[in-house]
Each structure stands twice: as structure tokens, then as C-alpha cells.
Write the C-alpha cells for this entry.
Amino acid sequence: MNQPVKVKARDYKSEVKPIWCPGCGHFSVLNAITKAFAGLGIAKDDTVLVSGIGCSSRLPAYVDSYGFHGVHGRGLALAQGLKVARPDLTVIALGGDGDGFSIGGNHFIHACRRNVNITYIAMDNEVYGMTKGQASPTTPADWDHSKLTPHGPGVRPFKPAALALAAGAPWIARGYSGDPNQMARLIAEAIEHPGFSFLHVLSQCITFCPEQTDWKSVVSDLDGPALSDADVAASLFHHEDGFQTGVLYASPRDAWPQPQGDVQPDDISEGFRL
């Protein structure tokens, strides 16, 4: 990481005003990101936010740093390529439950496996909000608020933490938009982790899922330090209710790619010549 600078959280806010719905949890994620950047003293020019498509993917426009708004589900692919090309930058990938676990699900799996030194923040509201409330990969099987699935999707929802662990993610945490200060600490820790870090954020959408206001009564901190044994973590992720927050699993391993000496762009191009 480059030398820290003195900057306040508000200095990272752009002039673009967020257009999320009132009560959207993504406001808290935005505030937590700027607090984390300020706490770490990361210069704006050393930071890049990369996103796909969805309500959550609007976030790069609201931060006064470099940003890239890509196509649906491809934010992680872009972020990894950027980090490999410019390892000096702090790269944050952003997405939602639809963008990250459905359209971009394959990229998510391989990002966990590949372990490029980036942070992925997935804002999970269990619904496709931007397209007016359809079931997503994390929607409860009995959620019947959509006209497309009036009896509920009837499909077991994804467990993002379990999927990340199985795919090889070395750092897994969960935050809640109702606790932005904890989220800011988790984002800072994720950035400082030397490898791929996955932060799953419970970010309520009260427009299409008003029942999510009840999350605040069931969210709780993980009892004890982060797990480092994958077998123990797997048991937890498969049996917990999905509302424990904090750093859930941390087992660092070497980030990819490993240093290969003084490799120049022309050397890479040469490798693709027929």
C-alpha cells in the first residue's frame, strides 16, 4: 500500500447524489467505505471501485476516486485484471446478490480460488431491486412478494459464505448495513488482508422487502475470534442462520500472481504470438 495521506471521510464523496430509495442499506455501505478509506489514509488517486449492474453497482459514481461501471456480473473479472496490471492500486469490487451470485456467480467462484489481492463487497438484499423486486439467488424459498413467484421461488437460497469457503476464499466476513461503524472496520481489515477478501453485507431493501427491517433484531456478532480451520468454518456456515457478523474466517495464503521477476508488457505479448 502507498504512503497514507490525511483525509476525511467526506472528502471521498463525489458531487453525484445517490438515487437509492429512502431506507436503502447501500447508503450505509457508501458511508462505511469512505470511513475505511479515511481511516487507512488511502489517496483518491490510489483507489479504484469496480462494479457490475444493479442498485449496488451505482456506488462507484458516488465516490471521488477512480471507478469503472462494467457489465452485469463482470465486476470481479475487471477488478482482478486491473489489480494484476496495477498492483500498486487499492481495488474494490462491488456487487449485489444478483450481480454477484447469479450472473456473476462463476466469476465469484474463481475469484475466491485465484486469490488476487482485491476486496469484494457484496451487498445482499435478497432481491433484484433495480428491476422491481424479483427473486435472486439468496431469496428465501417462501418469499411470495413477487408477481413472478407468487408462491415463492421454492428454491433453496445460496449460502454465500459457504460457497466462498468451498471455492478457496482465504478471508470471509459479514457485515450489516444497520451497523456502519462495524462495516467500516471490516472494510479496512479486508483491504489490509494480503489476498482476496470477501465481505458479505446484509443490506436491506425496504422498498420490496419491508420485512427486512426485522434484521436488526436477529443480527449478532460472531462469538469469539475468526475461524481458521476450514472444516469448522464449513460446519458453521452450513448450520448458522446467516445473521452472524464480523470476520468469520481467516486463513491467509499467498496471493496470485506470484512475483515472476522483471516481467515487461512486451514479454506478455510475446507469449500470445503464434
In short: Residues 26-40 form the longest helix (15 residues).
